[in-house]
Amino acid sequence: MNGSRRLPWDWYHGAVPENVVIGARSWIHSSFAFLHHRSEQPEAIVLGDDSGLYWGTDFLTGPLAQIRIGKFCTIVGAAFATNGTISIADYAFVAHDVTFSDGPVAVPPEVSPADRGPTTEIAENVWIATRVTILGGSRIGQGSVIGAGSVVDGEIPAYVMAAGIPARVVAPVPGAP
Amino acid sequence: MSDEEPFMPGPPVPENARVGEDVHLEHTRDTFSRFFGKSDPALVIGDRTAVYPWTNFSVEETGVVEIGDDCIIVGTVFMCAERIVIGNRVVVSLHTLIADCDFHPVEPELRRRDAIACAPEGDRSKRPPYKSSPVVIDDDVEIGVGAIVLKGVHIGAGARVGAGAVVTSDVHPGAVVEGNPARIAT
């Protein structure tokens, strides 16, 4: 970032907010992602090294929100609508049109309840397929895969494939250690 | 109309796209931002077909997308590594996704290697191989809002796919399917 909070390739007139930390060699599509970023936390969003946040990724954060994304994560297009904590560990794949939301209704923070939201934890090496919704308080274990269009509400163990609404374990992940 | 200025600056219509007569193509900065198709053509859009701005052609080097005549493509992400073929008079709604490939290996260790290769400054030539299987959508099919059509699926003529359905297996001609995974509606 080197002083200027402006992204050199940005088509939008904004800048990266002061309480967003972007790791080395990481990339974010535009400051447009922070149009509805309202978190007042000192390090509200921390993106690790070598991670990419692509077109369609948006942060709709309330004043208490904290988001942690690890290294080597590919976030193709996810909305983070939270006033709680969302953490995604290293090597995650998050596909198009994924939603992380404190509850089943995701709205911008200006019209959200002010209460502290839940804590959502995605372990290392997880793959979340297209158009999945992850509801607040969910936990997904290491190496697991969530199938397209699923809604995760609760706990998914490590090294499983889960799918459906709500997401259920459908098979072990092949090649699990 | 295909050479019209995009709404936001972005890649132009690729030279290896074959765009038919009277096509309405509202492309944006994202429509072709992940178009890497090397075949000629790697994209065919038939006569009088309309493609609206929420559409994205994520076509890998080996991918080919063929869309027939008189189709309405409102807002679809095409994720294509091999072949996606859409017939004539097909309507594909907003927020849909059609993929002929999973794009990542399911095995955790291979997936970790893929994550490193896919980093913004990663070496994409080190990506592990992944499986693909063509998607074929026949004439007069309607695909509902938010539906997802996955690899290897053949949707028969005149079938209807309900809103939010996740289609993982073939749909017979004229059938109506709904749900995740999609099943024949009763």
Distance from N terminus to C terminus of chain A (CA atoms, Å) equals 38 Å
Strand content of chain A: 35-45%
Kindly state the percentage of residues in helix of chain A.
under 10%
Which two chains have the most extensive interface, and how many residues on each? A-B, 38 and 32 residues
- Overall residue-averaged pLDDT value of chain A: 94
Query: How many runs of DSSP E, i.e. beta strands of chain A?
Result: 21
Q: For the report, how would you describe the main beta sheet of chain A?
A: 8 strands, mixed
| Global structural class of chain A | mainly beta
Care to count the β-strands of chain B?
Answer: 19
Helix % of chain B is: under 10%
Oligomer: heterodimer
* Count of individual domains of chain A: 1
Distance between the termini of chain B: 42 Å
**Nearest-integer average pLDDT of chain B:** 92
Percent of residues of chain B in beta strands?
A: 25-35%
Provide the low-confidence segments of chain B as ranges: none
Number of separate helices of chain A: 0
Shape of chain A: globular
Gyration radius of chain A, in Å: 15 Å
Shape of chain B: globular
Query: What are the low-pLDDT stretches of chain A, counting only 5+ consecutive residues below 50?
Result: none
Summarize the structure.
The complex is a heterodimer of chains A (177) and B (186). By secondary structure, chain A is mainly β.
Describe this structure in words.
The complex is a heterodimer of chains A (177) and B (186). Chain A contains no helices and 21 strands. Chain A is mainly β and 177 residues long. In chain A, a hairpin with a 4-residue loop joins strand 20 and strand 21. Chain A starts with 19 loop residues before the first strand and ends in a 5-residue tail after the last strand. The mean pLDDT of chain A is 94. Chain B has 186 residues and is mainly beta. Chain B is 5% helix and 28% strand. In chain B, the strands form 3 sheets. In chain B, strands 2-4-7-10-13-16-18-19 form an 8-stranded mixed beta sheet, with no helix packed on it. Chain B is globular. Classes of the chains: A mainly beta (177), B mainly beta (186). At the A-B interface, loops of A face helix 1 of B.
